[in-house]
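Posting for a labmate who doesn't have an account.
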Amino acid sequence: MNGEIAGSDLHYALRTIRRAPLLSGVIVMSLAIGIGANTAIFSVADSLFLKPLPYPNPNRLGLLFLRIPGLKIQRDWPSPGEFADIRSENKWFSEMSIALGDSFNVTGRGEPVRAEGLWASSSLFHLLGGKAHIGRTLLPEDDQPGKPLTAVITYDAWKRLFGGDPTIVGQAIDINGQP
């Protein structure tokens, strides 16, 4: 009995589609777009909210913002000086780091290149579990004023800008005109 009902329902659906093919096409396209959009939104939500961040102890990471209601600033990044004060007064966090995004002119090996990067304190790599493929990451003494600047480049930049040359470690390059 159920097979007969399903068969007659299918036969009726096919007859309806044949009678109004344009309407049927619009309905099928609407369903396809809706299913595709739903899948895309779930994929983004899954990667942002449901999967853990790819760092050690992601549930213990946080961002620190400054709030200055008198100036109507609800959310602002601390400056390096403010960060130094916050870190020296810190009683809650086991580790802290600061990173500021910037654009850099890289010269000294081949054509000059404009690159995006970060000014970061040495603790950033340890905090996020970053390891060096070759060479080293930043050390606490690299944070001291007056020390020569140290650059850590991404694996992709090493391959693209320096041809994967392992002898680049310890070599001077100019970043914004500074060695």
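Reply:
Got it, the structure tokens are right above this. The chain has a mean pLDDT of 87.
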